[in-house]
Amino acid sequence: MKNLTKYKYRLGGLALLFSASVCAQDMTSPYTVYGIGNIEHREFNRTGGMGYTGLALPADAWVISHNPASIAGMQKGFYNFDLQLAGKSVKYIGDPIDASARPGRDFGVRRASFAVKITNNWASSAGFSQYSTINYKYLGNLSVEGSAEKFPVQYEGDGGLNSFYWTNAISIKKNLLLGLRINVISGSINRTEFMTGGNEDHLIETRVQDFYSNARLEYGLLYTIPLNLQWTLSAGGRFAAKMDISPERTVTVKENDNIMIDEALIETDPFKLPLSFGAGIAIRKNNMFTIAADYSEEKWEPLNIKGSGWSMVNSQRLSGGVEIGRKVERWDRRTTYQFFQFGGFFNNSYLSVRSNPIREFGATFGFASNYRNVLYNIGLEIGQRGTTRHGLIKENYFQFTIGLSYRDFFLTKARKYD
Questions:
Q1: Cβ atoms of 85 and 109 closer than 8 Å
Q2: Sequence-separated (6 or more) residues with CB below 8 Å from residue 270
Q3: Which end of the chain, N or C, is less surrounded by CB atoms within 10 Å?
């Protein structure tokens, strides 16, 4: 029993995910078993139909959150409350998936924010968004040190990290926007093993919880150049330095209903978030036709984070999209009334499993319309992630997003009119 308990502290059996003995059940994503889970590369806002592209797009009547500098483009005296939700359905393909495996499904809030343009040159915003998620459940067999016997094990994982942020941005003259975002990245990641010690009535449960929390600064810049009376060109970028986010880890071990170890603190390896940067470009015609493209990268390889059969590698993301809109005059300003979007993206994730980079690509479509003070946007995404090579799992997925943005005057008695 000592050898068994010692082994279970490590939860080393997670490497069994893609072995032939695995039976997938109710997984949101099998790749969330590694590291801090699936890091969300999408920026959920009204650009969802453009492949989530927006580093070079300043906010106007409605908030765009890719670039910390963007909110300085809002109209003075207005505030904006934004809520974004998403639902996803995933079909899993690969040798480890048996006929009983059901599609993974998920629905929830992805981002909420409040933004206000306080003066002619200063805007501020606060909110939260998902940073990473873990959600998996699968079966495997575990060999215990000193014994040739194998025991059936069920592995479960849940939790993830959220980013709670405060952004401040200023406009210098009219064309240059600068921004600073303070992200507090925090949350817990929970991993549990259930093993029957050679007897169905003998259940050993080991739960490891990692608690993360630290602040990270993100810088943004956005510059716009009028090309003529109709066309404008804008470019933007953001940057975040490497940061330490090492967790505090606790372990709880139960044998049947008896607690053997209760939330004992144990040492864990240090963990860092990498240097991250991105740049974008956009061309717009009278704010009614937009073409935009983004590129971003995260430098994971220098951190040398790896495990049995997997490692973290530099990740890159490329996206682009088109928006065709219709504007109306409201409150003495031209405001978005309706728009249609289409776009796509390619994402080389931070994971390499069995020497296979885990890549993702997708096509997106979007529609939005304005009713009085509310903009509602709907986005559709069809994509694929992973591979079936070397016994891995491929995900074919469909995702829809729903966004609601409310806009009104902020602490003013100004007259409203159409």
A1: yes
A2: 244, 246
A3: C
Q: What is the distance between the alpha carbons of residues 315 and 240, in angstroms, rounded to a whole number?
A: 15
User: What's the pLDDT at 326?
Assistant: 73
What is the rounded average pLDDT of the residues 144-162?
Answer: 81
Q: 240 and 180 in contact (C-beta within 8 Å)? A: no
Q: Which among 43, 144, 141, 125 is positioned nearest to 81, based on CA atoms?
A: 125
Q: Burial of 153 by CB count in 10 Å (0-12 exposed, 13-18 middle, 19+ buried)?
A: buried
In this prediction, residue 145 carries a pLDDT of 63
CB 316 within 8 A of CB 300: no
Predicted confidence (pLDDT) per residue in 270-301, tens digit: 899 999 999 999 999 987 899 999 999 999 99
Question: What are the tokens at 81?
Answer: 């409350």
Task: Say which residues have a Cβ less than 8 Å from residue 229's Cβ, sequence separation at least 6.
Answer: none
Q: Vertex 286, ends 327 and 226: CA angle to 5°?
A: 150
Per-residue pLDDT of 370-402, as tens digits, reads: 887 888 999 999 999 999 998 899 999 999 999
Strands in 173-230 per DSSP E: 176-196, 203-226
Per-residue confidence (pLDDT) for residue 7, from 0 to 100? 38
**Does 411 score more than 90 pLDDT?**
no
Q: Give phi and psi for 14, each to the nearest 5.
A: -60, -25
Judge whether 111 and 140 are in contact, CB under 8 Å.
no
Tokens matching residue 145:
């040190």
Q: Which residue has the tokens 């053997």?
A: 260
Helix (H) or strand (E) holding 102: none
| φ, ψ of residue 330 in degrees (nearest 5) | -140, 135
Q: pTM of this prediction?
A: 0.86
Name the residue type at position 209. Q
**What is the residue type of 357?**
P
Q: Where does the pLDDT of residue 148 fall: very low under 50, low under 70, confident under 90, or very high at 90 and above? A: low
The DSSP H or E segment spanning 4 is helix 2-10
Contact 79, 141 (CB under 8 A): no
Question: Cα(first)–Cα(last) distance of the chain, in Å?
Answer: 75
Query: Which SS3 state, helix, strand or coil, does residue 347 take?
Result: strand
Residue 14 has pLDDT above 60, yes or no: no
